[in-house]
Amino acid sequence: MSERTERADTSTRQEYEVCTRCGSVIDTSDWYPIATDRIDGSVTLHPFCDETCKDAWLDGQDA
Length: 63
Ligand SMILES: [Zn+2]
Known about the structure:
Number of strands: 4
Distance between the termini: 45 Å
Oligomer: single chain
Helix content: 10-25%
Bound molecules: zinc ion
């Protein structure tokens, strides 16, 4: 029972993301907050389950 369901609008996306801070699985069919980091010219995306986790994670980052 591991067959994948294909969807036209999610061809290159995972079916879910994991919150960068707390590790909760994020339902990507709904909106969710993302923080971006720019390291050596490449952009890294950090998905979060909600704004609370995003704010807390940002507070814990060194500026
Ligand atoms: Zn979270």
